[in-house]
Amino acid sequence: MATIHSGAVGLDKYHPALLDGYKQAKEAGMPVEPIHSSRVAVLKGIPDSLQQTVRRSNMIIDLLVANLLPLTSSKTKVNIHKCITDALHQSALED
Question: CA quadruple 84, 90, 91, 94: dihedral positive or negative?
Answer without folding.
Answer: positive
